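Input/output pair, single chain:
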Amino acid sequence: MKVMFIGAPVDAPPAHLTTEQKLDATGKNTGNMLIGQALKRQLRLTHYEQYKAGMSPDWIVGNFDLIAIPASNFLFRNFDFGGLGEK
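Output:
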């Protein structure tokens, strides 16, 4: 299964980064790493990528089986994912 992750990072930041850069890579919340890595470990995936701004929705749909959202803060009534689907 090929998975596109949108939200918390699913990989640890590269070792060569400074501590401050590593913290920035987690969105300044190390709990995000726990959420992202935990979800990644639960899925039987063969390939995965982390969403980056500007990725084409059509390309994602054509190349991935699942979009996973490891981000509990996104799940509330008025959160709008519409911008992610715009071309």
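The longest strand covers residues 2-5. The helical segments are 19-25, 31-42, 57-63.
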